[in-house]
Inverse folding.
């Protein structure tokens, strides 16, 4: 481990698990032990905010520069209405480990959680309800491309889709079967992230280098072979202008043509010994990545991905 620290340089921080930018300038990241960081200059400088919790926060989302939510362990839902100056708890109907959160506007939001639960609010989180539940799998990620079309994905390949703004969710993929005679389990690969690109197009990534894509609204999910090592792929992001990035255990690849061709991304210093847990697009060709020991990298339209010291 000492060699790895030497390789990375800089101070070691707590792991950062999620990062979100409502504008090109304003961004937030969250992670272990209740960590929340904020930037107002496009990721050049980051400052801690007091979340009031020590639970792991695994998802963060802002509807605008004032209204944001962070979710995590023990049913934790935190809300700010002042850009993170103060965070207050919101009531969760379940005390599961919440994985991801998305808001389509300051009133309407969703949380994915354990036991295939999707929570929903229509009043900015004053009240949260269980909108959907299925079998005992963890839904890791949720993404909408517009107000109506969204996907959620998680363990054993389970993927659900909504076409009506999250009112109803339909299972599109996923497999978990146990042979009671042999005790063997047949299960699809775990998925860690989903990105909805448009009403027809979405991508998922997961364990063992899994990359999948649908181009027909989820009727068919096809395996995409990128010749990647069989490592965990934790995140995929799209800038909405044709550039996409996939990141995970010690690697990141980028496409500039909507996912047809992919190339390894150049990181300074290397991420070969680290993990990137989340990617976020700030605008065309602009990305921020966060990961283990609090690393933050930024990619501008020109140049490599560079590590931000904070």
């Amino acid at each position: 481990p000492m060699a790895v620290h030497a390789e990375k340089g800089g101070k070691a921080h707590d792991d950062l698990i999620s990062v979100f930018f409502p504008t090109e300038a304003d961004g937030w990241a969250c992670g272990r032990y209740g960590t929340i960081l904020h930037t107002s200059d496009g990721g050049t400088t980051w400052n801690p905010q007091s979340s009031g919790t020590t639970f792991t926060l695994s998802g963060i989302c802002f509807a605008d520069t004032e209204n944001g939510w962070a979710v995590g362990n023990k049913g934790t839902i935190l809300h700010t209405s002042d850009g993170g100056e103060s965070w207050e708890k919101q009531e969760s109907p379940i005390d599961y480990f919440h994985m991801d959160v998305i808001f389509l506007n300051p009133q309407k939001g969703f949380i994915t959680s354990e036991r295939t639960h999707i929570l929903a609010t229509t009043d900015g989180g004053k009240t949260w309800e269980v909108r959907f539940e299925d079998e005992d799998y963890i839904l890791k990620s949720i993404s909408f491309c517009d107000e109506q079309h969204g996907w959620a994905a998680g363990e054993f390949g389970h993927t659900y889709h909504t076409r009506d703004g999250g009112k109803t969710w339909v299972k599109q993929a996923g497999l978990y079967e146990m042979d009671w005679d042999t005790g063997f389990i047949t299960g699809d690969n775990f998925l860690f992230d989903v990105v909805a690109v448009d009403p027809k197009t979405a991508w998922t990534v997961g364990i063992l280098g899994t990359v999948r894509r649908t181009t027909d609204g989820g009727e068919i999910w096809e395996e995409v072979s990128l010749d990647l090592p069989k490592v965990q792929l934790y995140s995929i992001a799209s800038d909405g202008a044709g550039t996409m990035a996939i990141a995970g255990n010690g690697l990141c690849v980028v496409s500039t043509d909507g996912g047809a061709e992919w190339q390894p991304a150049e990181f300074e210093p290397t991420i070969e010994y680290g993990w990137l847990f989340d990617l976020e697009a700030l605008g065309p060709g602009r990305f921020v990545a966060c990961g283990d020991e609090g690393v933050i990298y930024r990619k501008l339209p020109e140049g490599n991905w560079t590590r931000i010291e904070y």
